[in-house]
Amino acid sequence: MRIEKLAPKVWKFTDWPGLSSNVYLLDVDKIPTLIDLGYERYHRSLVIGLSKLGYKPTDIKRVIFTHLHFDHIGKPDAFKNAEFFASEEEIEDMKKGLFSKFLARFGIKQPTINVEIKPVKDLKFLKVVKTSGHTRGSICLWYSERKMLFSGDTLFNRGIIGRTDLPNSVPNEMDNSLNKLKKYKYKTLCPGH
Ligand SMILES: [Zn+2]
């Protein structure tokens, strides 16, 4: 687990080397918040990473998922004091079982999400930008004060965009979403991978 400080009270956790997802910790409004939880199987290293910064899993009060693919949802029930958020569309598709269908294609079992996930709303410091494409309910998060864009699997560095050929993708909405993102002149892109 590699930890990088991106801004005051904002850190990035990366599992390196390895094919994994990035997790971000933001502690800017007194409600320690994680953006995505990475792979379930890397949960332990995320916990170790958090402890290096002085946080226990029970200190995390809010988790926002950019989308609900298995490599972003981690082990949510380990964060006992957290509230969980994703877009309404994403919650709907999860309930329809679309994510398990996606995983079956790769022979992976969908981890059970046994916590309640609520519809995400703008926070004082963090704006929700709906970016349908990679999944129907994908979101990006805009932290305007630091000009940081948390882009999930919609946009990666070097202009690489997320896959839209998965069962719950909506390829025809991706361009629109990428256009929407153009108005967020970020200094730091914080992608899901
Ligand atoms: Zn994804």
What do you see in this structure?
- This protein has 193 residues and is α/β, with parallel strands linked by helices.
- It has one domain: Metallo-beta-lactamase, Chain A, CATH 3.60.15.
- The chain is 19% helix and 24% strand.
- It has five helices and eleven strands.
- The chain has helices spanning 43-52, 70-73, 88-95, 98-104, 174-181; strands at residues 2-7, 10-14, 23-26, 33-35, 62-64, 83-86, 117-119, 127-130, 139-143, 148-152, 188-191.
- The protein has a seven-stranded mixed beta sheet with strand order 1-2-3-4-5-6-7.
- Strand 1 (2-7) and strand 2 form a beta hairpin.
- The longest helix is centred in the N-terminal third of the chain and has 10 residues, at 43-52.
- The radius of gyration is 15 Å and the shape is globular.
- The mean pLDDT is 93.
- Bound molecules: zinc ion.
- Zinc ion binds at residues 67, 69, 134, 153.
What's the name of the CATH homologous superfamily? Ribonuclease Z/Hydroxyacylglutathione hydrolase-like
Strand pairing plus helix content: what structural class? alpha/beta
Broad CATH class = Alpha Beta
Radius of gyration: 15 Å
Poorly predicted residue ranges: none
| Shape label | globular
How helix-rich are the residues, as a percent range?
10-25%
Find the CATH topology: Metallo-beta-lactamase, Chain A
Biggest β-sheet, characterized? 7 strands, mixed
Q: Biggest sheet, strands in spatial order?
A: 1-2-3-4-5-6-7
Question: What small molecules does the structure contain?
Answer: zinc ion
Determine the N-to-C terminus distance: 14 Å
